[in-house]
Amino acid sequence: MIVAIDGPSGAGKSSASKAVAAKLGFACLDTGAMYRSIAWQALHDGVALDDGEALGALARSKPIDFAPGEAGGPQRVLIGGIDVTRDIRTAEIDRSVSAVSAHPQVRAALVDQQRRIGRAGDYVVEGRDIGTAVFPDAEVKVFLTASNEERARRRVAQNEARGVGSTDFASVLADIELRDALDSSRAASPLKAASDAVVIDSSALSFDEVVSAICDLARNRKAGC
Ligand code: DC
Questions:
Q1: CA dist., res. 70 & res. 198, Å (int)
Q2: What are the φ/ψ torsions at residue 62 (nearest 5 degrees)?
Q3: Nearest CA to ligand 1 atom 16
């Protein structure tokens, strides 16, 4: 079974996806981490962010792997064998990743990998285009959103907890609004809710309420409701 969780940055997709996966006994795939890894590799190698062909070649040649985190820490992300778990969460990557993810060549390479990984078992897959493009036949589709201010507040708290990324509310809010605009307006698989997705606005919901709502959708679907 695939539970697709799409939505804008800071809506709580990552933490909700992990909690839902743990409750259902599913694995979890963070597709944003894959686009971030390609952005990191491009900056590392000096590949121009507007060179779709070169970025596509990078995405096809550099394997991205996920490994269990240490002592309850976040799942580790590796590209070409290098651990980039922390390095892909910096403000520099936040600013570069939308340009990288807009290239169809990059998306084609990563979507291939995402389908291969997701079809190997029961997965909660989070991203922007999971219900619309990667797994259009996903059994459960959720579009998780929240107000801009609430998303910025959460992202600041997350950055503080991780000790990486900006903790200035105004600049985080501006970044979120810019990234939303870029992700929603790009030609290739823009951020949007699938027509058959259940839209959950988490602004006024507790974390547990969001997780329960998604788990209920998955359990009902499994039970054939
Ligand atoms: O979820 P995130 O903030 O880590 O995602 C980073 C960027 O990657 C985001 O700006 C949009 C892009 N992305 C995408 O285009 N498609 C996905 N399935 C996941 C992320």
A1: 34
A2: -100, 110
A3: 128
- Which residue has a Cα nearest atom 15 of ligand 1? 101
Can you tell me the distance from the alpha carbon of 53 to that of 159, in angstroms, rounded to the nearest whole number?
A: 33
- Is the minimum distance from the CB of 175 to ligand 1 under 6 angstroms? no
CA nearest neighbour of 33 among 126, 96, 116: 126
- Is there an atom of ligand 1 within 6 Å of 183 CB? yes
Task: For strands 123-127 and 2-6, give the pairing.
Answer: parallel
Domains of the chain are: 2-216 (3.40.50.300)
- Torsion of Cα atoms, 134 then 121 then 208 then 177, to 10°: -20
Q: How confident is the model over 40-81, as pLDDT tens digits?
A: 999 999 999 999 999 999 999 999 999 988 876 778 999 999
Ligand 1, atom 1, residue with closest C-alpha: 32
Side by side, the strands of the sheet bearing 64-67 are: 64-67, 76-79, 82-83
Global pTM value: 0.92
CA distances from 83 to 180, 188, 193 (A): 27, 28, 32
Residue 103 beta carbon below 6 angstroms from any ligand 1 atom: no
User: pLDDT tens digit string along 133-169?
Assistant: 999 999 999 999 999 999 999 889 988 988 888 899 9
